[in-house]
Design a protein that fits this description.
Length: about 270
C-alpha cells in the first residue's frame, strides 16, 4: 500500500483522541472524516490498526505514504511517527492496543488482509451504541477482534513505492496519470534505460511487474471515483481502459466484486 509522498489535505484538522494513555488494553474507535481532512503528525506508545469502511484513508510515515483500500487495514506498531489523511469523505475506525498486548502483532508497519469475519467484527463494533460498549461481553468481543488481527495475513505493501532513480519517475508519472498506457519499453526509453533493466527494478523494488502495479493503482483510484458518484464507463475511460468490460474484469479480479457491487456495498 505504500506510494510516493503526496500533498497533504489541510482543510479540516483533527486531533488524535488519546495522547498520554488509553482507557483500556484494547480500544475500538469509529469516526467520520470530511473530505480533505488530516490528523497532524503524531506518535503514541500503543499500536494502532486503521481500517476504512468507506473512502480511502492515507497514512504518511517518515519515508512512506500508505493508501488503505477496503480489503486491507494498516497496522502501526507502537512509537511510529505518522499522519492520517483522506481526500474524499471517509468512515473509518482505529483499534488501539497497549504495547504489552501488541507484542504478538507485526513489529513493522504493514497491511493486514481483512477477512469477512474481521470485517464483520469491526462493523458490529461500529454499530454498537456507546452505552453497550462496556462490560465483560464487550471486552470478550475486543479480545476476539485482537485474535483475528494477530492471525490476519500480512501483505507488507499493497501499492509499494520506490526511491530508485530509474523507477521512481515512472511511478510518479503513473500516479499523476493512471490512465497512461505506455509500455515498459516506452517507459524505459523515457528514463534512459533498457526494458530489461526496468523490469528487473520492478521485481526487486516492487515485488511485481509494472503492469500489475499499474492495475493496483487504477483499482485504488477507481474506489475513490466510485464513491464520489462517477459513472463506471467514465471511470473506465479516465483510467485508460479500451472498454468498460475490461475495467470491470480488472476491478473484480483485484477486489472480488464489480464496481457497482463495491459502490452498493460501501
Amino acid at each position: 500500500m505504500p506510494r510516493s509522498p503526496a500533498r497533504q489535505p489541510v482543510k479540516h484538522l483533527q486531533i488524535a483522541p488519546f495522547t498520554d494513555a488509553l482507557p483500556g488494553d484494547i480500544v475500538f474507535r469509529a469516526a467520520q472524516m470530511p473530505a480533505d481532512a488530516a490528523y497532524p503528525h503524531h506518535r503514541h506508545h500503543w499500536g494502532e490498526f486503521v481500517y476504512a469502511f468507506s473512502g480511502v484513508m492515507e497514512v504518511q510515515l517518515a519515508t512512506e505514504h500508505y493508501l488503505i483500500p477496503p480489503q486491507y487495514g494498516l497496522w502501526l506498531p507502537p512509537d511510529v511517527d505518522h499522519t492520517g489523511m483522506n481526500r474524499q469523505e471517509a468512515s473509518f475506525c482505529s483499534v488501539y492496543v497497549v504495547p504489552e498486548r501488541a507484542a504478538r502483532m507485526p513489529q513493522q508497519v504493514c497491511a493486514l488482509t481483512v477477512s469477512p469475519l474481521l470485517h464483520g467484527l469491526l462493523e458490529h463494533l461500529r454499530q454498537t451504541p456507546p452505552a453497550q460498549a462496556q462490560g465483560a461481553p464487550h471486552e470478550r468481543l475486543l479480545q476476539v477482534l485482537l485474535d483475528q488481527l494477530e492471525t490476519a495475513p500480512a501483505t507488507g505493501s499493497y501499492l509499494p513505492t520506490s526511491t530508485d532513480p530509474l523507477l521512481a519517475p515512472v511511478l510518479q508519472a503513473l500516479e499523476a496519470a493512471p490512465g497512461d498506457a505506455r509500455s515498459v519499453a516506452e517507459w524505459a526509453a523515457l528514463v534512459h534505460t533498457t526494458e530489461r533493466t526496468l523490469m528487473r527494478r520492478c521485481q526487486s523494488q516492487l515485488g511485481m511487474t509494472l503492469a500489475e502495479w499499474r492495475q493496483r493503482l487504477r483499482a485504488v483510484k477507481a474506489m475513490a471515483l466510485l464513491e464520489a458518484g462517477g459513472k463506471v464507463e467514465h471511470i473506465a475511460q479516465d483510467l485508460g481502459y479500451a472498454s468498460t468490460s475490461a475495467f470491470i474484469g480488472m476491478f473484480r479480479r483485484l477486489t472480488g466484486t464489480t464496481p457497482d457491487g463495491y459502490r452498493k456495498g460501501r
